[in-house]
Amino acid sequence: MGYAEAYASLMSRHLAARQGEGLRRLQEGHGHAERLFAETVWWPAFGHFEHLHPEYEISDFKDGFRYLDYAYTPKDLRLAIEIDGFGPHWRNIGRTQFSDHCRRQNDLIIDGWKVLRFTYDDVKDTPRYCQQKLQQFMGRWLGEQRQTEGIDWTEKEVIRLFLRIGRPLTPGDIREQMGVGGKKARALLQSLARKGWIQPASGEKRIRSYCLSMEGKDLLL
């Protein structure tokens, strides 16, 4: 499934499940910046929209409701993602509104949410930076929280390294970053490739580098 089909499926599922203010917010509040984030940041970084919720409704400290641009909620994780544009809203924001904004983020954190914020300019002009920040976060979370069957701790560290660096890795990269010998570095990559979590990125008869496979990215689900 390509991006356009996957995004259309994401939106149709959520539109069908919403009603009232939640439906109106999704129809009117999910705008250009949020769509651009989905296309240029999230999809290239992970290749799926599982557990990603646009315009996610949460209770606020005033017993009302607010909406996150995106929430990512696989098992054991609640990640709030906000895209901030430097427009009239931010230039003209008053002290009361600024205080309210800070309280909102504090409440999210107290309620157990992780929070990542990206500016619209970064989403538009440097999407690779945003992808890397998300991948670095996921890599840390994978290492600290997830108990993944069939993968030992050294292999998990290699997966975290792929996520943190965000590019194809060579045996030399593994050797340098993890402090292991060349033979051990190649064995780790070959083991992960046999399990289907990484795949060759360059080289045919002799593979020079590897990248995460779709199965490897699915370790985040």
Automatic annotation (TrEMBL):
Query: Is Membrane a UniProt keyword of this protein?
Result: no
Q: Which UniProt keywords apply?
A: DNA-binding
| The keyword Ion transport is annotated on this UniProt entry | no
Supply the InterPro entries for this chain: Restrct_endonuc-II-like, WH_DNA-bd_sf
- Enumerate the GO terms in the molecular function aspect: DNA binding
Name it.
Answer: DNA-binding response regulator
